[in-house]
Write a sequence for this structure.
């Protein structure tokens, strides 16, 4: 039975979009593999081409596509979680923490000073620097999985640093947003966000 909020034509359009997504992802993933690059790189390029950056066939705001993409990310991370060993990750915790700190500080500083030198306000430069600290654990784990390096020492360091990087990035963004919006930092909000992140990881 067709839901009341979707007509037959809307369902048809959705199916066509899904077919386009699958075909484009498979095609560009295959091409990426042919030039010895991760399949996920080709899939990302396909998304850029189909999105508003170029052809604008697909765009954010479609509730069904947004839902399916969220489910896809959850399943991807769940599968990677099944392949990961938390005890092995803890063994490289120190190295992962150092890599994560570099991965936060360097993008923030470069982004901040680039926008400062180009005449943008300090608040804009801080927001850009803060957003550049974020990473994508999903992409990182997908590449490591394709290479069969998820449980290697290098893979564990990269994966651990990506997770820590995201936690630090959330804290940095909370501080930056507090400064930009309210003019001051709420230590309680930073502590609450940090506690949520640590509890989630635990």
């Amino acid at each position: 039975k067709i839901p009341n909020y979707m007509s037959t034509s809307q369902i048809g359009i959705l199916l066509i979009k899904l077919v386009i997504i699958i075909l484009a992802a498979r095609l560009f993933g295959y091409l990426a593999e042919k030039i010895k690059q991760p399949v996920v790189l080709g899939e990302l390029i396909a998304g850029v081409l189909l999105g508003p950056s170029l052809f604008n066939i697909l765009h954010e705001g479609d509730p069904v596509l947004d839902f399916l993409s969220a489910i896809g990310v959850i399943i991807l991370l769940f599968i990677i979680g099944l392949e990961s060993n938390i005890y092995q990750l803890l063994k490289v915790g120190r190295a992962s923490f150092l890599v994560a700190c570099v991965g936060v500080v360097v993008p923030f500083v470069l982004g901040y000073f680039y926008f400062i030198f180009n005449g943008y306000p300090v608040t804009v430069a801080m927001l850009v620097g803060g957003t550049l600290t974020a990473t994508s654990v999903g992409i990182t784990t997908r590449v490591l999985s394709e290479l069969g390096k998820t449980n290697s020492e290098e893979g564990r360091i990269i994966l651990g640093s990506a997770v820590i990087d995201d936690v630090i990035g959330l804290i940095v963004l909370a501080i930056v947003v507090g400064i930009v919006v309210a003019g001051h930092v709420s230590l309680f909000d930073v502590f609450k966000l940090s506690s949520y992140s640590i509890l989630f990881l635990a």
In short: The chain has a mean pLDDT of 79. The first helix runs from residue 8 to 34. The CA atoms of residues 171 and 190 lie 6 Å apart. The chain is about 80% helix and 0% strand.
